[in-house]
Each structure stands twice: as structure tokens, then as C-alpha cells.
């Protein structure tokens, strides 16, 4: 695992609105927002899915978000990667 990537579980996902929240394994960190445009691979997010992600800071409001969100484990087998072009989240943070 990359030293800038983290793991957690999708706590909530609103498919109609295209966003959700990840509960990080590190219980000292609050749930992180993610948007469907920041997913890697082709999958429909659902509560309870285990994911790996990185942090980025939103340039507009400065809050941390989860980016490069991808499934972990058996559910990820055979998933193809896709890239997203939402550049509001390009400022990667080395938060740990």
C-alpha cells in the first residue's frame, strides 16, 4: 500500500446525488466526503464496502476529501481503472 493511501469503509452513499462518506480505519479522523467523479474503477458504491483512498484538500473550501477511491479485496478483482478530471481536488495532502 502506498504511504499516502488509507483504508476505510463506505459509511453512506447517495447514488442519486453522487456522493458519500467514508469512515476511515483511523477512528481519530471524522468521516470523509467523496464524490462519484473521484472513484477509480467501475463500481457502484454501497455502504459497507471496503475502500482504499487518498486525501486531497478542496481548493474552494480547504476541507479534506477522499480521492482516488477504489475497492479493496475480493470485490475489487477484475475492476478496470478510470480517471477523473475534477481538478478542484488536486492539492494532495500528506495528512496521516
Compose a concise summary of this entry:
The chain is an all-beta fold and 96 residues long. It is 0% helix and 40% strand. The protein contains no helices and six strands.
CATH homologous superfamily designation:
Nucleic acid-binding proteins
User: Proportion of β residues?
Assistant: 35-45%
Please state the overall shape, judged from the principal axes of the Cα atoms: globular
User: What is the domain tally?
Assistant: 1
Structural class: mainly beta
Number of E strands: 6
Low-confidence region ranges = 80-96
CATH class membership: Mainly Beta
Order of helices and strands: EEEEEE
Radius of gyration: 12 Å
Specify the helix fraction band.
under 10%
Mean pLDDT: 81
Key phrases:
96 residues; mainly beta; OB fold (Dihydrolipoamide Acetyltransferase, E2P); 6-stranded antiparallel sheet; 6 strands; 40% strand; disordered C terminus
Task: Reconstruct the topology from this structure.
Blueprint: E1 5-14, E2 19-24, E3 32-35, E4 50-57, E5 64-71, E6 91-92
Antiparallel strand pairs: 1-2, 1-4, 2-3, 4-5, 4-6
What does this structure look like?
The chain is mainly β and 96 residues long. 0% of the residues lie in helices and 40% in strands. The protein has a single domain, classed as Nucleic acid-binding proteins (OB fold (Dihydrolipoamide Acetyltransferase, E2P)). It has strands at 5-14, 19-24, 32-35, 50-57, 64-71, 91-92. Strands 1, 2, 3, 4, 5 and 6 form a 6-stranded antiparallel beta sheet that branches. The two termini are 14 Å apart.
Amino acid at each position: 500500500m502506498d504511504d499516502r493511501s488509507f483504508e476505510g469503509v463506505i459509511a453512506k452513499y447517495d447514488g442519486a446525488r453522487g456522493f458519500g462518506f467514508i469512515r476511515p480505519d483511523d477512528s481519530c479522523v471524522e468521516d470523509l466526503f467523496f464524490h462519484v467523479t473521484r472513484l477509480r474503477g467501475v463500481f457502484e458504491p454501497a455502504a459497507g464496502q471496503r475502500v482504499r483512498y487518498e486525501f486531497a484538500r478542496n481548493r474552494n473550501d480547504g476541507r479534506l476529501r477522499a480521492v482516488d477511491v477504489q475497492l479493496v479485496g475480493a470485490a475489487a478483482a477484475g475492476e478496470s481503472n478510470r480517471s477523473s478530471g475534477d481538478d478542484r481536488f488536486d492539492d494532495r495532502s500528506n495528512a496521516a
